[in-house]
C-alpha cells in the first residue's frame, strides 16, 4: 500500500489519489511542536496523552498537537476504542473525551463538534453528577468494556485525542 504522507509525496507517487490508501498511523506537526503520531482505530486516528491533566488542559493539548478531544459517534466506534484500549493495557487508565454538560446540567455536548453527543454509552449508574460537580466525560473500564462516566473536570486523567476532520466545514470566500 502507498501511504500518502504529504501532498507532494502524493503527487509524486500517486497518479490518482484513488490509488492511495490510508495507513495505520498519521504524523501531524503543528506550529513547531514535535511531531505527533496518531494511530488508526476503526475509521479515525487517535493519540493518547499519557500525562494526567484536567479536562480543560486536555482540550488545549489535543489542539496543540493537531487534534481534538475524542468524539465517540457510534456503538461500533465505542467498541473499537474499548477493544483497542484493553488490548494495549490501558485497563486502569481514565481518559478524557470531548463530552461535557458545563453549559447546561444533564445536556451533554461535545467541545469538539459543539453539538449534542450523538452517542453515549454510560457505565452503570452514570451519569450521576456525584457531589453536583461532575460535568466532563471520561472513559473507564467497567464490566470488561470502556464506557463513559461524568467526572470532575479539574480532576487529572489521561487524554484521548482524535485527528481533526478538516472536511467538516467549507470555507467559501465568494
Ligand atoms: Ca459520575
TrEMBL record:
Q: Where is the C-type lectin domain?
A: 45-162
Q: Which PANTHER family match?
A: C-TYPE LECTIN DOMAIN-CONTAINING PROTEIN (PTHR22801:SF63), LITHOSTATHINE (PTHR22801)
- Signal peptide (UniProt feature, chain positions): 1-22
One Pfam short name: Lectin_C
Stored InterPro entries: C-type_lectin-like (IPR001304), C-type_lectin-like/link_sf (IPR016186), Ca-Dep_Lectins_ImmuneDev (IPR050801), CTDL_fold (IPR016187)
Instruction: Name the domain of life.
Output: Eukaryota
Question: Protein name, please?
Answer: C-type lectin 37Db-like
Q: Cite the entry's keywords alphabetically.
A: Signal
Amino acid at each position: 500500500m502507498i501511504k500518502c504522507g504529504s501532498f507532494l509525496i502524493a503527487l509524486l507517487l500517486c497518479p490518482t489519489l484513488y490509488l492511495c490508501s490510508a495507513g495505520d498511523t498519521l504524523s501531524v506537526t503543528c506550529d513547531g511542536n514535535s511531531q505527533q503520531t496518531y494511530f488508526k482505530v476503526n475509521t479515525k486516528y487517535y493519540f493518547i496523552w499519557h500525562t494526567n491533566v484536567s479536562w480543560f488542559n486536555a482540550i488545549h493539548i489535543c489542539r496543540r498537537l493537531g487534534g481534538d478531544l475524542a468524539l465517540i459517534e457510534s456503538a461500533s466506534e465505542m467498541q473499537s476504542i474499548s477493544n483497542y484500549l484493553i488490548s494495549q493495557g490501558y485497563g486502569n487508565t481514565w481518559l478524557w473525551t470531548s463530552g461535557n454538560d458545563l453549559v447546561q446540567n444533564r445536556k451533554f455536548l461535545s467541545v469538539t463538534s459543539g453539538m449534542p453527543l450523538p452517542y453515549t454509552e454510560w457505565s452503570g449508574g452514570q451519569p450521576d453528577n456525584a457531589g453536583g460537580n461532575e460535568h466532563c466525560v471520561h472513559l473507564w473500564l467497567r464490566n470488561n468494556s470502556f464506557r463513559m462516566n461524568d467526572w470532575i473536570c479539574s480532576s487529572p486523567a489521561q487524554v484521548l485525542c482524535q485527528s481533526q476532520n478538516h472536511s467538516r466545514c467549507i470555507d467559501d470566500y465568494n
